[in-house]
Amino acid sequence: MLISCLYDNKPCDPNNFFQQKSFYFGNCFTFNSGKNLTGHSIPVLNSKRPGMVNGLKLKLFIGAPEYQPCWEDRYGALIVVHNRTVPPLYVEEGLFIQAGSETNFILNKVTINKLPSPYSNCVANVSYRNEFDSESYRSAFDLSGSYRQKWCILNCSYFKATQDNILLCSSFNFTSSFERSKSLNNLENLANYYDVCFPECPIECDYSYFNIFKSVSSFPSYSYSQFLLANRSFRLRYPYENVRLEQVRNSVVSFNAYFDSSNYQKIDEIPESNFESLLGTLGGQLGVFLGVSFLSFAEIFEILFEILLIFMNNRKRVINNE
Fold it and tell me: Is residue 226 domain-shared with residue 249, that is, in the same domain?
């Protein structure tokens, strides 16, 4: 499957990938997860600089199109970009890349820091199994040793869909677990359970995601196709002798993923007002009102003084007239 692999302009090999199984997509391989194909821990690779040269560059053989499973209605590869500390969500976050093309994913990381209670109901400590009192929360935590809301909602939706349709599906007498699972997905849309599962699956206070900008070009070129066919091990991947250039184009993909800069976007929630700003606001308001009150109090003396002057002037006039 792997034709070539480069990361940080250095060669990588199948031992840098960790294999997982997906119900929808079969074999899935995670690069730089800290585990190799056998599940043993290996050092995590780091890229020192941004740019295409220092990112991940893969060339993959995805199989001869004539020998794809008959139930598949698409052809290509699925890519999920995620933090290595959390498991991938293939259906919810995956992006397809097409055969016969080179696809570039230009990445920009965004980190969100939300305020915990009393400002929100987010989960502050995702590494603690009993941080939130919910069976769906604990089930999602048990999947990877850490909590993630999307995992929780997906797991909760599967569970509720299964419970609601288990009797109906069992009456169909399907011959395999694949057909039974397929019937569940066809009978009930999992999105119908999202509103029910949201109260059981709070959002994390600290989480991150990747903004992905995508560009595509044709691949492989005529000369590179000839280079691939000159490799005997590559030709043996096909179940027939005479391999045409068009067949090569329809069975390979090229994929590049890299950051466009060393910076990332960080969004922090802050209180609109805290105790210090509240005291400052109250002090300002009191200052204004007290200032007005003192002015009003001085005006009373001024009025009394003017009344007294008027009275004295009128008295002098009366004496002069007499």
Answer: yes
Give the pLDDT confidence of 119-156 residue by residue, as tens digits: 888 888 888 888 888 888 888 888 777 888 888 888 88
Question: The pTM is what?
Answer: 0.72
Residue 238, CA distances (Å) to 13, 63, 65, 231, 241 in order = 21, 8, 10, 12, 7
- Could you give the number of structural domains in the chain? 3
In the chain, the amino acid numbered 121 is N
CA pair distance 180, 291, nearest whole angstrom: 78
Specify the length of the chain in residues: 322
Distance of alpha carbon 245 from alpha carbon 284, whole angstroms: 78
The mean pLDDT value of the chain amounts to 82
The per-residue b/e assignment along 36-73, b for 16 or more CB within 10 angstroms, e otherwise, is: beeeeeeeeeebeebeeebbbbbbbbbbbeeeeeeeee
Helix 177-187 to helix 149-170 angle (10° resolution) is 100
3-state secondary structure of 132: coil
Q: Are residues 12 and 47 in the same domain?
A: yes
Residues 106, 230 share a domain: yes
Which domain covers residue 312, as residue numbers?
277-322
CA distance 209 to 117: 23
Give tens-digit pLDDT for 253-301.
999 999 988 888 999 988 877 777 777 777 677 666 655 555 555 666 7
The SS3 call for residue 197 is helix
